[in-house]
Amino acid sequence: MTVQNPTQTTNPDSLRMAIEAAELALWEWDLQSGEVYLAPRWATFTGAPEFASCQTAEALLAQVHPDDVDHVRQQIAAYLQGHVNRYAVEHRLHTATGWIWIESTGLASQRDNNGKVTRMMGTNANITARKQAQQELAVARAQAEQASQAKSEFLANMSHEVRTPLNAIMGLTRLLQKTRLESQQVSYLELIDNSATALLALLNDVLDLSKIEAGKLVFEQLRFDLQGWIEQSVSPVVAEASAKGLQFNLDIAHDLPHYLMGDPGRLRQVLGNLLSNAMKFTEKGEISVKVWANPSSRGLLPGQISVLFQVRDTGMGMTPQQQKTIFEAFSQADASTTRRFGGTGLGLAICQRLVTMMGGKIKVASEPGRGSAFRFSAVFGLASNQPSQLTMPAALEARSLA
User: Fold this and answer.
1) 75: region left, alpha or beta (phi > 0 left; psi from -120 to 50 alpha)
2) 10-38 burial by CB neighbour count: b if 16+ within 10 A, else e?
């Protein structure tokens, strides 16, 4: 059986039908005479009462929006000089009903003996509807971003306003606890203090998340002792794990630099969130923290180091489907988790954003009933082992005070 080449069946009628279906207006430009031959569809674009199939290039250029004329000339020159492989430009065109958007494309159809273009052919398409849709989408996106920023700023301001009276409640509660009280009053005050502490932690999470979304969270660059800071960060969990009957392991690689430059407070926040979850969801077994240098140095600048942190537990674990949503704000593994353990699901969402801002990534490996392992990386600057002058206390001069 002989297979016929599809190009052999092409004829002017089928080509004309394809052009009509695409609503394209053909044009041919004789560069030597400056005349441009236009297809009848050009009249439907412009709405002109009389159609002239032959016009000069300058006459057509006069119909282009003044702000687009230079761009059209530049694209023509770029093609004729061989800087681009085809002529393509979008511009506004004046018509009987107002301005429309035209997409014009073309190629050389004839050259002289020196290879200079003497004739071009191409198409014009009316893309006004597409341009309007793009503009409407841009406006909608800008409005959505503005609304999101306004929401974040409101949450940040609201969190600050609520924390002020809440701190007063906590302070007064602890002052009352130091007075002579009955046993029932003591239990009531402990309940108030615990509730206020939980509410303050929630407000801090909302404040951090809103600051991140509003782009107002600032990272400090401080010189800190990496090992000492990690030991301080895990120390509250060690006692809690012992009381719960859990084993706690801390493994810090010996080849890590002693001092680094970064924001140790944000590092402690990430470790604290991960360790809090590990304690919350682990009933028996162990919790371990491992810290070591990232063997990959891709993307690092001179004087930087990437450090890997892993928090592993033998708790309840998660299914693959649950792992897909845990880093989303206000998301937890399932509804029963909220009922049993409480929380809003902000912790891991904040962790992911903080880790990203520290130049790293966070991921989880987990199996139901076999625990979870959260691993994240963070980029820090290398610091000398000698304390800087800013960390040394200034000498006091002896002065007489009246």
Assistant:
1) alpha
2) eeeeeeeeeeeeeebbbbbbbbeeeebeb
Stretch 265-292: mean pLDDT: 92
Where does 134-199 show beta strands of DSSP type E? none
Given a contact cutoff of 8 angstroms between Cβ atoms, the answer to whether 306 and 378 are in contact is: yes
Through-space distance between the first and last CA atoms of the chain, rounded to whole angstroms = 116
In whole angstroms, give the CA distance from residue 267 to residue 95: 62
| 20 three-state secondary structure | helix
Answering whether pTM is above 0.85, one says no
In three-state secondary structure terms, 207 is helix
Nearest alpha-carbon partner for 309 in 323, 294, 299: 294
- Mean pLDDT lowest among 63-67, 188-192, 249-253: 188-192
pLDDT single digits (tens) 238-278? 888 988 999 999 999 999 999 999 999 999 989 999 999 99
Q: What is the pLDDT of residue 3?
A: 40
Rounded to an integer, what distance in angstroms lies between the CA atom of residue 259 and that of residue 277? 28
Give the confidence band of 195 by pLDDT, cuts at 50, 70, 90.
Answer: confident
- Write out the DSSP string of 51-96: --SEEEHHHHHHTB-HHHHHHHHHHHHHHHTTSSSSEEEEEEEEET
Reported as a single tens digit per residue, the pLDDT across 90-115 is: 999 998 889 999 999 999 999 999 99
| β 371-382/117-126 pair status | unpaired
Angle (CA) 394-396-398 rounded to 5° is 165
Question: Six-digit token pair at 174?
Answer: 């602890």
State the Cα torsion 263-264-268-270 to the nearest 10°. Answer: 30
Tokens of 45: 């674009």
